[in-house]
Amino acid sequence: MSMKQYLESFTKEECGAITVDWVVLTALVATLLAAGYGLMESATSTTAGATGDYMSDRSF
């Protein structure tokens, strides 16, 4: 098999392209989850702090 034939068969093969698609999609989902966690973490700690302040000011 010559180099030209190898390159032609390599460019026609689609199995690798599907793998690349899955890797890109997985990276996108992981990035979105990390960004969502960052947003939720800051909002949750702010709400928890405000709730703690409210509860400590009240006497039961």
Could you walk me through the main structural features you see in this protein, from its secondary elements to its overall organization?
- The chain is an all-alpha fold and 60 residues long.
- The chain has two helices and no strands.
- The termini are far apart.
Question: Which key phrases capture this entry?
Answer:
60 residues, mainly alpha, rod-shaped
Rg (C-alpha, Å):
26 Å
- What is the percent of helical residues? over 70%
The overall pLDDT, averaged over residues, is 88
Figure out the total of helices. Answer: 2
Derived structural class:
mainly alpha
**In sequence order, what are the helices and strands, one letter per element?**
HH
Q: Report the strand count.
A: 0
TL;DR?
The chain is mostly helical and 60 residues long. The chain has helices at residues 3-12, 15-57.
